[in-house]
Fold this protein.
Amino acid sequence: MGTILVTGGCGFVGSHLVDDLVAGGARVRVLDLLHPLSHGGEPPGYLNPAAEYVFGDVRDADLVSRCLEGVEAVSHQAAMVGLGVDFDDVADYVSHNDLGTATLLRELARLPAPTRLVLASSMVVYGEGRYRCPAHGLVSPGPRTPQRLGAGEFEPPCPGCGLALVPEAVPEEAALDPRNVYAATKTQQEQLCAAFARETGAVVTTLRYHNVYGPRMPRDTPYAGVASIFRSSLEGGRAPRVFEDGNQLRDFVHVRDVAAANVLALESATTGTFNVASGERHTVGELAAELAGAFGGERPETTGEYRLGDVRHVFASAEHAAAGLGFRARVAFADGVRDFATAELR
């Protein structure tokens, strides 16, 4: 494998990918903004010294053009993640995620030959996951309302008859239904990359990460994942606060597995979209309890609070990634959580 450009290669997933690529003998160039919300503006201490680092913005076309010189493939990890503070974040999310992706794609399109591209997307593009009504079969529930959530009615009902729905593993062909700002920007990233592939003939693979956790997660911020928020509470001597009733279903996948999926995508000529997931479902409350037990901290507190941009259940079918990429997660949930309980946070 020749030179690989990893945007966002100083971050949570990106840095693990850089380590794996270097270990596999690749030459790696990293472009990373070192955004203050993620890094405090300073390079983290875990950066792999064998990689080349360029600190700058993926929205800077001249800089991106220079970073693409001699590059064989690109892994686009750079993005603002999470729900953020409130809707005031909308312009920053669109600028970093969508304008940044558009700038990268334009510079890739100007190269003399198509360049392999792997996009880091997210399960948030699905919105609510896949649901089946006993009477109507597969249905798409409407957005959850503050009235229902405030009354503790967390499960989405069938939009046709109001019956309780049964959640199922969501496959890649499910319709996209982004339900918050971050999800909308990831959906747009996917669509921009699909247009780029059609118009240039480039090989593009989209990886939809499910709930990634593991070493180097950022500490507790509005942009962090739930595992990091729980872990930060435990480190501070506080009980993890579990929203709603704690029964929200998710697929928690370890960052080492996510990095491995990226390597497989970069090495193959496979196009398409793949869930990157463990293929197992666990509740948010279960994650909090496992993490608290492994850390030796306070037992979780279930609060009944909610965030309007959250969805109730979304977990993955992992079969398409196994067949198309040869990817299966290897880190077991209990082992990964036990490791994360004492791992270094960023």
Summary: The longest strand covers residues 116-122. The two ends are 30 Å apart (CA to CA). The chain is about 35% helix and 20% strand. The CA atoms of residues 291 and 337 lie 6 Å apart.
